[in-house]
Write a structure and sequence with these properties.
mainly alpha; 2 strands; globular
């Protein structure tokens, strides 16, 4: 009988998780964040690469300008984070905010 190494066992466990749909899909937070951006109609005020509204800033390169902690803080309390901000707080769960931030961080011209 062969002895399966730890790496071999881990591979088998991960394969089983994928077969039974337990393992999260790679990039799922990113996809969920994009979906939330669209569902919450963020594009009514914000543009990405010229597509969308003009009330808020274009977010095409927000991922190069801000970090995740700042974005999460801003989304929860825009007016408390930036004086004069017109945006309302994003009402979302922590998981949703994390996904939205992941999507925003991916935006790099």
């Amino acid at each position: 009988m062969k002895i399966i190494t730890r790496v071999g066992w881990m591979g088998l466990v991960l394969l089983g998780m994928m077969v039974y749909g337990v393992a999260p899909a790679v990039g799922s937070g990113l996809e969920e964040g994009k979906k939330l951006y669209e569902e919450r109609r963020c594009g009514m005020c914000h543009a990405i690469g010229g597509q969308g509204g003009k009330v808020g800033p274009d977010l095409a390169d927000v991922g190069t300008k801000r970090d995740g902690d700042w974005l999460k803080k801003f989304l929860k309390d825009p007016k408390g984070t930036v004086t004069g901000a017109k945006m309302m707080p994003v009402k979302a769960t922590e998981q949703e905010l994390t996904a939205l931030v992941e999507y925003l961080l991916s935006l790099k011209k």
